[in-house]
Amino acid sequence: MKYKKLITNRILITGLLLIIQVVWMAILLLKLGNYSVWINIAFSVLSVLIVLYIIGKDENSAYKIAWIILILCLPLFGGLLYLCFGNKNPSKKMRKRLELEHRRLEKEFQGDDTAIDEIRALDERASGVSTYLKNASDYAIYKDTDSKYYPVGELMFKDMLEALEKAEYYIFMEYFIIEEGVMWNKILEVLERKVSQGVDVRLIYDDMGCVALLPGSYAKILEKKGIKCMAFNPFVPFLSMVMNHRDHRKIMVIDGHTAFTGGINLSDEYINLKQRFGHWKDTGVRLKGEAVWNFTLMFLEMWNAYRKEDRSLEQYKTHVHHPNAFAGSGYVQPFGDSPLDNETVAENVYIEILNQARHYCYIFTPYLIVDNEMKTALSLAAKRGVDVRIVTPGIPDKPLVFRLTRSNYAPLLRAGVKIYEYTPGFIHAKSYVCDDEFAVVGTINMDYRSLYLHFECGTFMYRTEAVMDLKMDAVQTIGKSRPVSLRECRTGIFGGLLDSVLRILAPLF
Hints:
Blueprint lengths: L1 H6 L2 H22 L4 H21 L4 H13 L4 H8 L6 H13 L8 H10 L1 H14 L7 E6 L2 H13 L4 E6 L6 H15 L3 E7 L11 H7 L3 E5 L17 E5 L3 E5 L16 E3 L2 E6 L2 H15 L7 H4 L13 E7 L7 H12 L3 E5 L7 H12 L3 E7 L5 H9 L1 H7 L2 E5 L2 E3 L3 E4 L3 E5 L5 H6 L2 E7 L2 H15 L2 E2 L8 H14 L4
Helix pairs in contact: 3-4, 3-5, 4-5, 6-12, 7-8, 8-14, 9-10, 14-15
Subcellular location: Cell membrane
Pfam family, one: PLDc_N
Membrane topology: Multi-pass membrane protein
């Protein structure tokens, strides 16, 4: 059984196929040795043409610079590498499916205009952020929504199980990582029971996110249990050369009136039942009320783009209780971020919060791999007197990425940004809180993949209960963390060169 699992492991298969490909290319090049001069000329011309093409593209400058430098360093094969790995645009098939479904659902994105009018009367800058989100992502802002903040995954997991047990009509789940263990097995047990009670249970999981955690046929296994299941963007060994455009969202919607989201995947380390990198610090929110409709739409758009199961969404609205049952203070705006719209929605929201901050902005992020725009916003906020604090992991999950995160410390520290490393372990949270009024809790890391390539989601909150709870948690977490000094960022000549190379190539990771 052990050997059979090893043989069918998709990562092992992919590795073997890649080795075969490299050997095949090496043999081909040896065979073509007599034509090496002409081959060199052809590849060099290709690289020059590719550089000119990259310069003319309308995309992130850091991404373009990284590829140009790589091609200049590898003039023979750099252009070929770009043709194989440089296209960060979604496939035409994926784009067509999702754009068609989004247009079909456009009328469903209408919100309550009185909410934005009320916010405008309170604070023009808050209404500006909300208006941008509506215009850029179509998701409206709502009131009459209760928000609950969770400082760790185990607390949210408890409430997730309770909410699942109360489901009467439908359960929609969309996750980047699912791994068999205590957390997933308990959820699966409830899902199977709910299916037997007639509840419509649907699950989307990212195939690449689960490639080493679930068997390739797992969707079919769940379908046999009555759980409708879809593996997003299936990983095909050898053909899936570029692993971009993953579904990095974490969404659970129950009967249209309750939703959970945040950084918490369905795996035991997220609730600290499995120790990998010390204590796993994550955050999440539960919403009850009108704003849950945004997450319902987000899920159904992805689902029906591939399964085409629902001609009308009216049936999913009828189960939402009267708003007064979930009345909460403040305003809530769940939003999605997609690589299809060429709009860096999440990064722009983060930058806007920093630009408008007056007193403080506290940030949790597992990775600090930022472009010049984000670095400038962080630095300018600190320079004008805003108390900007960033908490990153004390124990890394990926040593090279951790080195890259640390390579971004020095310029921020010099600008006055305060950086802390979470001493007890790994911080996986993706949260912003600002001036006791604004907060964002979601799935969006401060790195190129989350900000530019993945399907992500977040929840923008203005003057809700969760905002102050997040602030209190940030203060307590900073108290448990170690402040980083500028002196620690001195790495010597060779270390500095390595950091420079890593920063240049960061958009390609």
